[in-house]
Amino acid sequence: MLAVHRFDITDSTNRIAKELAADGAAHGTVVIAKQQTGGRGRLGKAWESIPDKGLYCSIIVRPDISIQRYAQITMVAGLAVAKVVDEFSSKKCMLKWPNDIFFNDCKCGGILTESSSLTSDAESRYAVVGIGLNVNSKLDDFPMELRETVTSLAIENGMSFEIDELLFETRDRLLVELVEFKENGFVDILEQWKEKDMLCGRHMECVGFDGKIIEGIALGPDGDGQLHLRDCKGVEHAVLSGDVRLARKETRHSE
Ligand code: BTN
Fold first, then answer.
1. What pTM, to 2 d.p., does this model score?
2. Residue among 10, 11, 29, 56 whose CB has most ligand 1 atoms within 8 A, to mutate
3. Binding site membership of 132 for ligand 1 (Cβ less than 6 Å)
4. What are the per-10-residue average pLDDT scores of the chain (255 residues)?
5. Cα 68 to chain center, whole Å?
6. Could you tell me the distance, in angstroms and rounded to a whole number, from the CA of residue 150 to the centre of ligand 1?
7. Cα dihedral sign, 165-115-227-249
8. Do the beta carbons of residue 17 and residue 59 sit within 8 Å?
9. Of 38, 117, 133, 139, which is most buried, counting CB atoms within 10 Å of its CB?
10. Of residues 132, 153, 154, 138, the one with CA closest to residue 45
11. Which of 240, 23, 251, 234 lies closest to 128, judged by CA?
12. Would you say the CB of residue 97 lies under 6 angstroms from ligand 1?
């Protein structure tokens, strides 16, 4: 039986999951909260956790793979969540590199994967896959500045969903995809991921850590999970990390 740690309110399920993982919690252990006061997103951003209306969970995984392959877990997780969303939703979602869930260029979910130190021995190595999904929220639940760029499963489908059903499907799907990844490698995952790539062929920009913006046409992720784009001079760039978005002239909504 896989453990599920439930909280009415906490700062961040990822923080708790990392503590549990460091104390030896098993592969597949889940931490879920109805509300987070300090939900964390990628690149130091905050994650807005509307109380009782979203899936806010962290899943501890300990796949038996080499350290080098750990970085790819984040895209495996994105694909797993996208498959679950598609099972529940009448509209199909898209993925924005590296692992955001989108409908019609509006964000419905995101994933923050945090790994143990890559020097840790194989026994104690883990990754925490933190998943935030807007499930039953309405637009006016969100702060004004986010309303042009967010969506939820309820908004897209005109109905509400059982958050626990989504939780268990997500955990089980993630564990299945990790077995596929371990046994068949990243190529199969990448092929499926690319079918849902919302950026490919579109005009995008990437903001680097130094604030410098690279603009170009998205070419999709490569076998290492890096996103490629070609700028207006024809130069190809590979992005390992960074804030990636549609270029302003491409957005349906102002950002
Ligand atoms: C992103 O879009 O940048 C990633 C968002 C990840 C949010 C989830 S909510 C559950 C888990 N706990 C956190 O603090 N963050 C993740």
1. 0.94
2. 56
3. yes
4. 96 98 97 98 94 98 92 96 98 96 97 86 91 98 95 98 98 98 96 97 88 91 94 92 81 47
5. 20
6. 15
7. positive
8. yes
9. 133
10. 132
11. 23
12. no
